[in-house]
């Protein structure tokens, strides 16, 4: 269970960054389609496309950090896939990060308790 704390910090940062970018792009998508007529490609600003491009690259880094943490925590396949898919659903990376952080804290506390005995 070596390096869990560092992997957890990297995962937390990427979950928040990816989540914020995805949430911003999603909100912009909804507002653009409903109020600003972004259904037509000519009406979309260049920053809108750049935001989705950034999310794609950030999501790749999120996948790497999520797999790293899942391997270090020895998660099962379904929990690992759940963590990884959370980066594709708006606001779900925040939820996955919250529960993963709680699990990491419990494991680190148990590890510290067992090493002090």
Task: Give a nutshell description of this structure.
The protein contains four helices and no strands.
How would you describe this protein?
The longest helix has 31 residues, at 4-34. The chain is 79% helix and 0% strand. It is built from 4 helices and no strands. It starts with a helix and ends with a helix. It is mostly helical and 117 residues long. The protein has one domain (4-116).
What would the keywords be for this entry?
117 residues, mainly alpha, 4 helices, 79% helix, elongated
How are the elements arranged and paired?
Layout: H1 4-34, H2 46-73, H3 77-85, H4 92-116
Assembly classification: single chain
**Helix/strand/pairing class, anyone?**
mainly alpha
How many domains, in number, for the residues?
1
Major sheet size, sense and barrel closure: none
Mean pLDDT: 89
Radius of gyration: 18 Å
Q: What order do the SSEs take from the amino end to the carboxyl end, as H and E?
A: HHHH
Please tally the helical runs, counting DSSP H or I stretches of 4 or more residues: 4
Amino-to-carboxy terminus distance: 17 Å
Low-confidence stretches: none
**Strand segment count:** 0
Beta content comes to under 5%
In which range does the helix fraction lie? over 70%
**Structural shape:** elongated
